[in-house]
Design a protein that fits this description.
24% of the residues lie in helices and 20% in strands. The protein is an alpha/beta fold. The chain has a 5-stranded parallel beta sheet with strand order 3-2-1-7-18, with helices on one face. The chain has a 5-stranded parallel beta sheet with strand order 9-16-10-11-12. It has a 3-stranded antiparallel beta sheet with strand order 4-5-6, with no helix packed on it. Strand 14 and strand 15 form a beta hairpin.
Length: 465
């Protein structure tokens, strides 16, 4: 693409090309006459490369691909990818409902390689609204292989879709050590790149009770000799708890629940989200079982493995202790404190939404915000903007405060993309299911069939009848 050469406004310009915007790009590809482009600063697609641990699987079924839950006949479905590689029969016999992460990454790269709308090595610098033309002006820099700017350009678009993703979160007490090249303190996002160094360390501490922390611990445990494991697993949560994976429980990751959550007051939503941590921060029961089995096998000849698992603990401070690292920790329930000396720390401490404040700085006066200063997002995934802006800014994975725990879930990617495209085109380009859960969330609503939900006089809310 010649920088600045395209002056005709696009119908949709996506900022970022992670799984969610890639889902939007894939479904947009099937809309006749719709013009779109998705700009990504990276030179090539990669999905959490530091955590593509051998044997690690997705926590969602393969049907949670880019398109299938909305358009299973799409050429961009996971099964289409398997068919293109002439692997349908091996996949059929493998009976893998939950595929390896590495295979999901390969599938996404396959889609990226064929969608002409995805443009890598393009960094979006700023976005402005041009009221005279009724379009967004998007300034970008084309990056070279080493990340240096080679050229600048401008595109115009009637609508935007922000899908800039999340960034690894480093807790404040450990940020200085994480930035210190002399300390082996890293986020789990960089685990595979540092795996050999971690295996060479005498003692490794993993911080964080989620799936990533469990997978890192299990991988290190399997690779270290019996009796000299030298591993500690710490977590703030009160237990190394399994993720909610009951069939009815999972209905909180449906469009029905998303609509219910949006209807709650801001204060209620803010109170509810932290209490739902086990829906998305727990560990799969299978992984917890594999950790226990590996630990148990190491007791067969007598003795206990040199592995410490301690929940309910927060890291309060961290310092260099010569060539080693000293962690100051506090147990929340006991109120007790202790020091742990270790050689390396892996922080499985999750991710935070990347800020788009600088990118959208020129639009700041137009964006409506809630009481906490967060952008308001409507039911169509659009930022609520001043009426002077006639274009739409759609957001992906930046609306947990308004749309709930399903926001980062891959299973809602295709549905959210369809919501966006229907709003953009003004028609049911992709018909959406009227009902998606057996659970009825809240009182006083109606089912998809229009039947009223009524409580009989003998029913007592919050107690027994």
């Amino acid at each position: 693409m010649t920088p600045g050469a395209e002056s005709a406004p696009l119908d949709l310009l996506g900022v970022g090309a992670g799984p969610f915007n890639l889902s939007l790009a894939a479904l947009a590809d099937g809309v006749p006459g719709l013009t779109s482009a998705f700009l990504e600063r990276r030179q090539a697609f990669s999905w959490h490369p530091g955590l593509l641990i051998e044997g690690a699987t997705l926590q969602v079924p393969f049907l949670a691909d880019l398109v299938s839950l909305i358009e299973p006949a799409s050429p961009w479905s996971f099964l289409s990818y398997i068919k293109a590689g002439e692997r349908l029969f091996p996949f059929y016999f493998a009976e893998k409902f939950h595929i390896d992460r590495a295979e999901y990454d390969a599938y996404l790269r396959w889609v990226c390689g064929q969608l002409a709308s995805c443009r890598f090595g393009h960094q979006v610098d700023t976005v402005r609204w041009n009221g005279e033309r009724g379009v967004f002006e998007v300034d970008f820099t084309r990056l070279g292989p080493e990340g240096d700017g080679e050229a600048v350009g401008r595109l115009y678009a009637r609508n935007l879709a922000l899908g800039v993703g999340t960034a690894p979160h480093i807790p404040e007490p450990l940020r200085d050590l994480a930035d210190d090249p002399g300390s082996l303190v890293l986020h789990s996002a960089d685990y595979l790149a540092q795996r050999d160094r971690l295996l060479a360390a005498r003692h490794v501490t993993v911080v964080g009770s989620g799936q990533s922390g469990a997978e890192v611990l299990l991988d290190l445990l399997r690779a270290r000799p019996r009796g000299a494991e030298g591993l500690t697993w710490l977590a703030r949560t009160q237990a190394f708890a399994p993720m909610e994976y009951s069939k009815i429980g999972l209905e909180q990751f449906t469009p029905d629940y998303t609509r219910y959550f949006r209807g709650l007051t801001e204060d209620t939503r803010d109170r509810l989200l932290p209490a739902q941590w086990q829906l998305y921060k727990g560990v799969s029961a299978e992984t917890l079982g594999e950790i226990h089995e590996e630990l148990y096998r190491r007791t067969i000849d007598g003795g206990w493995p040199d592995v410490t698992l301690t929940p309910g603990v927060a890291v309060q401070n961290a310092n260099r202790a010569g060539a080693r690292i000293e962690l100051s920790v506090e147990h929340g329930q006991q109120g007790s404190r202790a020091h742990l000396t270790t050689d390396a720390v892996v922080l499985a401490t999750g991710y935070r939404e990347r800020s788009v404040d600088s990118l959208l700085s020129p639009l700041r006066p137009y964006v409506a915000r809630d009481n906490a200063g967060r952008p308001e997002v409507d039911e169509h995934q659009r930022l609520v903007l001043d009426k002077a802006v006639t274009g739409s800014v759609f957001v992906q994975n930046a609306e947990r405060h308004t749309h709930g725990v399903g926001t980062p879930d891959l299973g809602l990617a295709a549905w959210r993309s369809a919501v966006i495209l229907n709003a953009l085109t003004g028609r049911d380009t992709y018909p959406l299911p009227r009902r998606t859960a057996f659970t009825t969330f809240g009182l006083g609503g109606k089912t998809a069939e229009g039947r009223d939900h009524q409580l009989t006089a003998s029913t007592t809310v919050g107690g027994r009848s």
